[in-house]
Design a protein that fits this description.
Blueprint: H1 11-33, E1 37-42, E2 46-53, E3 56-60, E4 70-71, E5 74-77, E6 80-83, H2 84-93, E7 98-99, H3 113-121, E8 127-129, E9 136-140, E10 143-146, H4 147-166, E11 172-177, H5 183-195, E12 199-205, H6 206-216, E13 227-234, E14 239-250, E15 257-269, H7 274-292, H8 303-320, E16 325-334, E17 337-344, H9 345-351, H10 353-356, H11 361-370, E18 377-383, H12 390-400, H13 413-425, E19 435-439, E20 444-451, E21 457-465, E22 470-471, E23 473-479, E24 486-492, H14 496-499, E25 510-516, H15 519-526, E26 531-542, E27 548-561, H16 563-568, H17 571-583, E28 593-596, E29 601-602, H18 621-625, E30 663-670, E31 673-677, H19 686-725, H20 729-732, H21 737-754, H22 763-811, H23 827-852, H24 864-887, H25 929-942, H26 951-963
Parallel strand pairs: 1-11, 11-12, 13-18, 15-19, 23-28
Antiparallel strand pairs: 1-2, 2-3, 2-4, 5-6, 5-7, 8-9, 9-10, 13-14, 14-15, 16-17, 19-22, 20-21, 20-24, 23-26, 24-25, 25-31, 26-27, 27-30, 28-29
Helix pairs in contact: 4-5, 6-13, 7-8, 19-21, 19-22, 21-22, 22-23, 22-24, 23-24
């Protein structure tokens, strides 16, 4: 950025300089338009927020309590809304008003097994069904909140923490999700983010984010040989394991080598976690309390008592991770009865015996899915809060036969990996490339009906995205037999191998119904002479968030044209074909894999990473134009991934005698398609607008509450401050007795009003009261300020006068009378400055004397503004003369002609200079030695001649300023 470029006349060099300049400007424009981004690890129990902003490294945003993680809890009470620890505290007193552990309810209908389990764990919640979408709705009195609305409010809180940390607005984020999230959960979370006014750059799986974070700090250890790691996570709600590989790979497009982390196998247990352990301990404590018989009321029937037990069970669970025994203690658990019980770690582990038997299953599933044996795994790395439980670590250590790696921050690793990904995806950040390749957990297939030879309809299934396939990626399926309007279904496939008996947790197995129209019409209009249909191609996409979509559907045609017909093709037709190719799903930057209707899947083993895709199933028109001839037998057959076969003329055949074969041109016609989602109705349209209005109303209430609290605090602070100041001599001396009495009386009146009728006043009333009190007190405060600041202002004026007098003394020596060679100033200018200084001194002395005669509590005569105005006037007079001195140049005397040189004979040389009478008519060639030396040095240093700049004058001016009589200025 600081490199100095020399200006050259060479055209190529000038172009390079221009290119560098444009690049620098573009860089500055990018930085200027960039903004901070964040990542959110919205866990079942805790929420962590990672942030990165231009010029600031990645970090964890702190909440209002300056903590690095916040409980994922939200509570409502009497129109107020609180979050985090405040919500947990409120939840102990009013359990049905405080909501936590929400993320696993996203995208679930009311009859989902996970909803039933949630109801059993937290029986005090009033959960009802959304009448339109059949999803979960929490009812609090007359208010109802959908699960997306509650999650959106938590994301708003995360956004607030990020904005407070960076001091910049946040609009983009990367959200962390469990790998077993299906299409319904992922789309529901994106809808919640939209409600929070956040753009989701990507949904990243938790184990992928952790693996990315792990690899970032071990980049130097990654090489061309694959290294395998297993990441094991036990959180509050679930347990998962993922086998990943690290390896350097070359990008096919850029030919650059980057590290790649690829997910090879995943296993999970979505109900095994710390929450289940905490619930079991809660129930154990409740049973023990009932056995004591302190009250006839069953503790399980009292929501407040159950909330207290749940909180204590969570504390006890954490303590028993480090201690062998500890007391559970709750004051006033039920009917004002206290509860105290000693619990040992052995008892706790006995409650969770069957859970511990499931600890190794996700690890084994991940290894099985990856096809790797445990002995090739470099390390088993732990993350997630509940991997700190000693029993869990003992089980894992015994199962793998080696030590566990604990060199990750179990709480923040995922969040930091995700924020690195956010910086990579957002504009304005340049990060070292680290490619991530995630894996499909739930296969997706296309199901359609096709007429058999005997006229009956049979169902055909074709897998689009198989288990453990890398994504993002595109796929294409070709329908060859359909000549009329038809429809097909997209659904999950082969779930038994992944979920076994838990397939109902995903909800509907059908994802979408796609209805195609105008098929016969398009075929009739386009299949004419020399045009053959190659089938209807449907382009599907699984993006980097793992969300499935139908990109487009098109009818692909092949037209056989001769050379003459090709020449007659209009420019508009060629442009149309090019545009059709650009907007088709079969893009050249990431070609799609192909699945034909007959079922022969034409795929390559190498997965796509989102940039380097597989070969297309057909040639582009550009490729076909380059062919000299084509195999006639290939007409009417499906194109292969490498393109159509071609014939080459014999080597000895002359080009002019070669037979020109017909050329094949690919044409594409869009087929109208309608996609109907069949899992959970998305939150969009009128439903989304209704939720957005509810969110806006809640925000408005919160903003009004904050404004009222701010106004109340400001009024109370001003009243207390005014009363204290009226008792202090330095303020009391600046007020009259009447003013002191008035201020004190007004403060007493407002204090009494605040603690009586004014306790429920609105923000406008508080602000009006504050303004009235300030009107009474500010005059006294202003006098005090004047008296406090005046000495400093007078001192500054004194320094300016002293400096001006020093300049005046030096300036007297720069007039024509005193120094003819340096006649910078005129006598009038010197006299004007002298008068300005003298008048300023007289004004100061007079005003200071008059001000000292006045009491502190009367209106101020000599104000700070008066002093600064005088300083400004004197400063202008001095600056005028200083600028004139800078612009002054000494008069250059003409150089006398050199004396004629004499020869050895004593006579003058014949080649002498012209006489003095002829010299004025010729240009001056000689220069002073000082000027010659300076110009010579400048020429050698710069390497170029600078026009219209006199370096001698510049150096002379600099010398005058450095060594002249006025160096003190």
């Amino acid at each position: 950025m600081g490199t100095r470029h020399r200006m050259c006349t060479d055209g190529h060099t000038g172009g390079m300089v221009l290119l560098v300049t444009l690049s620098v400007l573009a860089l500055f424009a990018t930085v200027a338009n960039s903004a901070a981004v964040m990542s959110v690890d919205l866990g079942s129990e805790w929420m962590k927020v990672g942030v990165v902003s231009p010029g600031v490294p990645m970090e964890i945003a702190l909440n209002k309590e300056s903590k690095r993680k916040t409980p994922s809890t939200i509570a409502f009470r009497n129109g107020d809304r609180v979050f985090g620890e405040d919500a947990q505290t409120l939840g102990v007193r009013f359990p049905s008003n405080s909501f936590g552990y929400l993320v696993d309810l996203l995208g679930k209908t009311i009859d989902n097994p996970m909803v039933d389990m949630y109801r059993k764990r937290f029986p005090y919640y009033d959960i009802v069904e959304d009448p339109v979408r059949h999803t979960v709705v929490f009812r609090v009195g007359e208010e109802r909140y959908t699960i997306e609305e509650l999650i959106a409010q938590l994301l708003q809180v995360a956004k607030g923490y990020a904005e407070d940390s960076t001091g910049q607005p946040i609009t983009e984020c990367v959200l962390i999700v469990p790998g077993f999230y299906g299409q319904a959960e992922r789309t529901a979370l994106v809808s919640a983010a939209r409600l929070a006014n956040l753009k989701v750059l990507q949904l990243i799986n938790d184990y992928t984010a952790v693996a990315l974070n792990y690899g970032i700090f071990r980049r130097k250890e990654i090489n061309e040989t694959a290294q395998y790691f297993l990441f094991y996570d036990m959180g509050a709600y679930k347990t998962s394991a993922a086998v990943v590989s690290y390896q350097l790979a070359k990008d096919k497009a850029t030919r650059e080598t980057h590290p790649v982390v690829q997910v090879l196998g995943v296993g999970f247990d979505r109900t095994l976690g710390g929450l289940e352990m905490q619930v079991r301990l809660r129930d154990y404590l409740g049973q023990e309390f009932n056995k004591l018989g302190k009250t006839k009321t069953d503790v399980f029937t009292n929501p407040r008592a159950m909330a207290k037990l749940f909180k204590e069970a969570g504390r006890l669970k954490n303590v028993l991770s480090a201690n062998t025994e500890h007391y559970a203690q709750i004051e006033g658990l039920l009917d004002e009865q206290d509860f105290r019980l000693l619990v040992t770690r052995e008892q706790f582990e006995g409650l969770c015996k069957d859970l511990y038997e499931r600890v190794t299953a996700p690890l084994d599933k991940a290894l099985a899915a990856s096809g790797l044996a445990l002995d090739v795994i470099n390390q088993v790395v732990l993350f997630g809060g509940n991997t700190r439980v000693p029993k869990v670590q003992d089980i894992l250590r015994a199962h793998i036969g080696q030590e566990l790696a604990k060199n990750l921050n179990a709480d923040e690793a995922a969040c930091m990996g995700a924020v690195y990904r956010a910086a990579d995806l957002a504009t304005g950040f340049k990060v070292k490339k680290f490619i991530t390749k995630d894996a499909v957990l739930f296969p997706i297939q296309v199901v359609f009906d096709r007429e058999a030879e005997n006229g009956t309809m049979r169902q055909v299934r074709r897998t689009l995205f198989g288990a453990m396939n890398s994504y993002p990626q595109k796929k294409v399926i070709t329908f060859n037999k359909h000549t009329d309007d038809f429809e097909f279904t997209v659904q999950y496939a082969e779930l038994e191998s992944v979920l076994r008996d838990e397939t109902r947790t995903l909800g509907s197995l059908d994802l979408a119904r796609v209805i195609l129209s105008e098929v016969a019409k398009k075929l009739k209009a386009n299949v004419v002479e020399n045009v053959e249909s190659k089938g209807i191609k449907a382009h599907f996409m699984l993006d980097d968030s793992g969300i499935f979509s139908l990109a487009n559907v098109e009818l692909v045609l092949e037209k056989t044209v001769t050379k003459e017909e090709d020449e007659d093709e209009s420019t508009f037709q060629k442009i149309g074909n090019t545009i059709s190719k650009l907007f088709s799903g079969d893009s050249t930057d990431k070609p799609a894999e192909k699945v034909t209707e007959e079922g022969s899947e034409k795929e390559e083993d190498e997965p796509t990473d989102g940039k380097d895709g597989k070969q297309s199933e057909e040639q582009t028109p550009k490729d076909k134009d380059a062919d000299a001839s084509k195999d006639a037998s290939s007409d009417g057959k499906e194109g292969t991934a490498g393109g159509e076969s071609e014939k080459k003329p014999d080597d000895g055949t002359e080009a002019k005698n070669a037979t020109v074969a017909p050329k094949i041109v690919t044409l594409k016609e869009t087929i109208p398609s309608k996609v109907e989602l069949t899992y959970v109705v998305p939150l969009e349209g009128e439903l989304f607008e209704a939720s957005a209005k509810l969110m806006a109303a809640l925000d408005e209430v919160d903003n009004a509450k904050k404004r009222r609290e701010t106004a109340l605090n400001a009024l109370e602070s001003f009243v207390i401050d005014a009363q204290v100041k009226m008792d202090e001599e330095e303020y009391a001396s600046c007020a009259t007795e009447e003013e002191i009495t008035s201020i004190r009386q007004r403060c007493v009146e407002i204090s009494e009003w605040l603690y009586e009728d004014g306790s429920d006043a609105d923000a406008d009333t508080y602000e009006k009261k504050l303004e009235e009190l300030r009107t009474v007190a500010n005059e006294v405060y202003a006098r005090h300020w004047e008296h406090e600041e005046r000495p400093q202002a007078l001192n500054a004026l004194k320094q300016m006068i002293n400096g001006s007098e020093g300049f005046l003394r030096n300036a007297r020596n720069l007039t024509k009378d005193t120094n003819p060679e340096k006649d910078v100033f005129t006598a009038v200018e010197i006299e004007t400055l002298e008068k300005a200084i003298r008048s300023t001194i007289e004004w100061r002395d007079t005003e200071v004397a008059e001000q000292e005669k006045l009491a502190r509590n009367v209106p101020v005569r000599l104000t700070v503004k008066d002093i600064t105005d005088r300083m400004g006037m004197l400063d202008r007079e001095v600056k005028y003369l200083v600028n004139k001195l800078k612009l002054w140049r000494p008069k250059v005397k003409p150089t006398p002609p050199p004396k004629p040189e004499k020869t050895a004979s004593g006579k003058e040389d014949e080649k002498e200079e012209p006489s003095g009478e002829e010299k004025p008519d010729e240009p001056v060639l000689e220069q002073s030695p000082e000027k010659d030396t300076t110009e010579s040095e400048g020429s050698e240093a710069d390497g170029a001649t600078v026009e219209e700049i006199d370096p001698t004058a510049t150096r002379k001016e600099h010398d005058d300023e450095e060594g002249g009589d006025h160096t003190e200025l």
